[in-house]
Write a structure and sequence with these properties.
The protein is α+β, with helices and mostly antiparallel strands. Helices cover 50% and strands 20% of the residues. The protein has 5 helices and 7 strands; from the N terminus they run ββββββαβαααα. It has a 4-stranded antiparallel β-sheet with strand order 4-2-6-7, with no helix packed on it. A 3-stranded antiparallel β-sheet has the order 1-5-3, with no helix packed on it. The radius of gyration is 48 Å and the shape is rod-shaped. 6% of the residues are buried. One of its GO terms (cellular component) is bicellular tight junction. It is a single-pass type IV membrane protein. It is found in: Cell junction, Tight junction; Cell membrane; Endoplasmic reticulum membrane.
Length: 226
């Protein structure tokens, strides 16, 4: 039986009947509370075999017990027209019984194997850390090619075009205001205050649009760069 013994450990026994008669068998152990044997008795036909599962129950391993548990497989020829297995064993004569004795051996994992497993578990986080320290920036550079980034680039281009358009309109309105101011000055008609307010009103709206567009561009460019 190979440890650790924190769970059920199963070992199989193969019993074969090489004779030309049916054989009854029974499996006994010196530690019946420690083992579950299935089947623990039965009949084997001539030339046939049967597998017996011996299940060791979980327990606290004690090195002093590794050679104390024993099994014995008893066999006898089955009488004709057998109906009661218990009666067969009670009525069997000592010279009709055959037996084979087995000694249990408990094996724990090698201490060197344990050390290797511990070293492997310790080295694994180190390898993962080295991977994170080196290539981790690459996924960020690759992620800049996704759909969201392309949308941001296109939005920045569109806002730049809007700024250029608003700048042209602002320049046109400024020129138009200068032309109207010259006409008003030459005709000496209308209130200078009213003309100044009209000029300021016509120039302030495009300037405000340019400022708003510039703010949006700065926001999207800042998000794209980060």
């Amino acid at each position: 039986f190979s440890g650790p013994f924190t769970d059920v450990v199963t070992t199989n026994l193969k019993l074969r009947n090489p004779s030309d008669r049916k054989v009854c068998f029974k499996v006994k152990t010196t530690a019946p509370r420690r083992y579950c044997v299935r089947p623990n008795s039965g009949i084997i036909d001539p030339g046939s075999s049967v597998i017996v599962s011996v299940m060791l129950q979980p327990f606290d391993y004690d090195p002093n017990e590794k050679s104390k548990h024993k099994f014995m497989v008893q066999t006898t020829y089955a009488p004709p027209n057998i109906t009661d297995m218990e009666a067969v064993w009670k009525e069997a004569k000592p010279d009709e019984l055959m037996d084979s004795k087995l000694r249990c051996v408990f094996e724990m994992p090698n201490e060197n194997d344990k050390l290797n497993d511990i070293d492997a578990s310790k080295s694994a986080p180190v390898l993962n850390t080295s991977k994170q320290d080196g290539p981790m920036p690459k996924p960020h550079s690759v992620s800049l090619n996704d759909t969201e980034t392309r949308k941001l680039v296109e939005e920045c281009k569109r806002l730049q075009a809007e700024i250029m358009k608003l700048t042209d309109e602002n320049r046109h309105l400024r020129d138009e205001g200068l032309r109207l101011r010259k006409i008003a000055h030459s005709d000496k008609s209308g209130s200078p205050t009213a003309l100044a307010l009209r000029d300021n009103g016509s120039n302030s709206l495009p300037s405000l649009l340019v400022v708003i567009a510039a703010i949006f561009i700065g926001f999207f460019l800042g998000k794209f760069i980060l």
